[in-house]
Design a protein that fits this description.
The protein is mainly β and 119 residues long. The protein has one helix and eight strands, in the order E-H-E-E-E-E-E-E-E. Strand 6 and strand 7 (90-101) form a beta hairpin.
């Protein structure tokens, strides 16, 4: 059975005014994918530490999780963009992208967690 992936995108600036959503210099961001019935089917938890990010710079964090589904290996991914327009302030900006599959086999649903620093 071939595994088909979908790419979802959400523009942060469509939701809030620029420069984006202000976040602490370090912490974790949780993203939840929901089906059309508003039931969550995948949760991404992306830990980050941007305390060393200089003023006036941009970076991104990409988290990829591989499920070993009987050697079929499916990948799930999320990518977040960060900007630091001034010292001590960091924002998620641009487009948040997620790669996902349309369904999860029974008993396989779980959250993913990964530590990431400046990418």
């Amino acid at each position: 059975v071939p595994l088909h992936a979908y790419l979802g995108a959400c523009s942060v600036t469509d939701v809030v005014a620029p420069p984006g959503i202000r976040v602490p210099l370090e912490g974790a961001i949780q993203l939840t994918l929901m089906n059309p019935s508003a039931l969550p089917f995948r949760i991404f938890r992306v830990a980050y530490d941007l305390t060393a990010m200089p003023k006036g710079t941009k970076t991104f964090i990409r988290q990829v999780v591989t499920d070993d589904e009987d050697a079929g290996e499916r990948e799930w991914a999320v990518q977040l963009h960060f900007v630091s327009p001034s010292s001590g302030r960091v924002y998620v900006y641009g487009t948040v992208r997620m790669m996902f599959h349309h369904r999860i086999p029974c008993g396989k649903a779980s959250s993913s967690e990964s530590k990431a620093g400046d990418a």
